[in-house]
Amino acid sequence: MNTSQAQHYNYLYEQHLINLSLQGKRPSTIDAYARAVRRITAFFDKAPDTLTTADLKQYFNSLIQTHSWSTIKLDRNGLQFFYRYTLDKQWEWLSIVKPPQVKRIPDILTVKQVSEVINQTKQLRYQVFFITLYSLGLRLSEGLNLTIHDIDKSTMLVHVRDGKGGKDRMVPLPEQTLLALRNDWKIHRHARLIFPGLQVNTKNHMDKGGVQKALKKVLHDCRIKKFISPHSLRHCYATHLLEQGLDLRSLQQLLGHASLNTTARYTQLTKVKQRDMSRAVNQLTDKITIIWSIK
């Protein structure tokens, strides 16, 4: 782009950021939607308001070769927002980019395996973090952002702030988790954060990558071959509570799900559900009389 074109692009980009803020988008969404505009501009080296439908098709076809569908959906949504609010144009070719509908069933640890993972974790701060994620049903970011003000020992509740969709929720605080949090705090004594970084007087929480690396190592040490991430501990929390008889509505509230349908997916992960299905299948096949061929 020449100087004039660059100035025009910078103006559009600033308007895009302003519109994102005015529409109340969350910081993570603003970052993703802004990156979508920067990426396509860099790809063609020209302002995105000059792009044709053919250009857009070319861009997304190229993006599919190098990026995940989650990234492609974010770019599509970001450009759709840019067209609507900054360019005041209709997004008429939405069907051109249509990510496949994929529903994965997550791997789940048993209660015994969760205990093993926590007990085999070598560093106390990671041990406490893992039991906190599991016993409170937290997302990774929710756990990392916990502060001392979120822990209410008088009511034995934890205030989970700014969860997915900007929603707060209250979750029960188990006695064992409170004890673990206290023991860890006595070591770092941070004025605000429950899980601070290692640097003295840091204002930042514990490193996300460090948490993931620690869990990966302990899974290897425990010889657990399942695809488990820190978020899997939240899946385990939900599944194990259902196995104990907790109703779906209560679980929905604990997890902070907007839709009960999202929560209902955990029912297929429970041992009770799997046992019932297995029993039904066996009862069905037991009704079949088979005379096996000798050959």
From TrEMBL:
Q: Name one GO molecular function term.
A: DNA binding
What PANTHER family does the record point to? PHAGE INTEGRASE-RELATED (PTHR30349), PROPHAGE INTEGRASE INTD-RELATED (PTHR30349:SF64)
User: What positions does the domain Core-binding (CB) occupy?
Assistant: 3-87
List GO BP terms, alphabetically.
Answer: DNA integration; DNA recombination
Keywords in alphabetical order, please: DNA integration, DNA recombination, DNA-binding
| Domain Tyr recombinase, first and last residues per copy | 104-279
Q: What name does this protein carry?
A: Tyrosine-type recombinase/integrase
InterPro entries named in the record: CB (IPR044068), DNA_brk_join_enz (IPR011010), Integrase-like_cat_sf (IPR013762), Integrase_catalytic (IPR002104), Integrase_recombinase_N (IPR010998), Integrase_SAM-like_N (IPR004107), Tyrosine_recombinase_XerCD (IPR050090)
Superkingdom assignment: Bacteria
Recorded hits in Pfam families, A to Z, give: Phage_int_SAM_4, Phage_integrase
**Entry's family note:** Belongs to the 'phage' integrase family.
